[in-house]
Amino acid sequence: MKRRFVLAALPAMLFALTGAAKPRKSAPKPAPPAPLGDVVRVEIVTELGTIVADLFHKQAPITVKNFIRYVDSRRYDGMAFYRSMKLDWGTPPNGLIQAGVRDGAKLLPPIAHEPTNVTGIKHKAGTLSMARNAPGTARSDFSILMSDLEGFDAVPDSPDPEKRAGYCAFGQVVSGMDVALKIFDAPRSPTLGEGFMKGQMLSPPVKVLRVRRVPIAPA
User: If you placed Cys at 167, which of 71, 117, 152, 182 could pair as Cys (CB 3.0 to 4.6 Å)?
Assistant: First the structure.
C-alpha cells in the first residue's frame, strides 16, 4: 500500500515518464497429477535399498488413490519403517514390516475400508496392506508382508467384526524383497511399543528417502 501511495502522489508528468510498474508474472500452476491406470508402480527408496511395488488401482481404487496422494504430495518422503513384527509360528521370515507418516500435519483424512472379499486381493508374501485401528480409520500407515497371512483376509460370515472386515490388501512387491528382509531383520528395541506391539519397534527406524511413481515397462 505504501509503494502505491507514493506513486500516486508523484506529478503526472513524472509518472508518465517512469511508466507504471510491470505486473509480476504469476507462478505457473503445477501440472495436474497423472491419471491412475489399472496398475500403478511405485519405488520406495530406503536407506537400506529400494523396494518396487505394483498397486492395484482397479481392484482397490480408494486405497490406491489415497496412497498415491501421499506419494505425489511427497508426504511419504522422510518417513520410516518403524516396526518389524516377527511371529513365533510358521517358517521364518514370518510376519511383516510397517511404515507410515508420524507427522500429524502431513496426514490426510481416513479412508473407507476395502475388504479382501470385495477386492479379491489376498494377503500373500510381498503384499502391501493398509494398517488401521477400526475399519475406516486407515490413513498413511501400511505394511509389507514377509509371509502369507491368511488371518488378515476378510471372513464375511465371521461373528467377530474384526475378522469379518480383515485388512485391505492393495499392492504387491515386484522387486526388493531382499531389502524388505533387511528391514525385517534390523535391530528392535525390547522396550519401545505399547501393548502387543512392545518389542516390535525398530531402533533406529529405517528411513525412507523418497517414494515415487515409476513407469511400468511394456511386456
Answer: 152
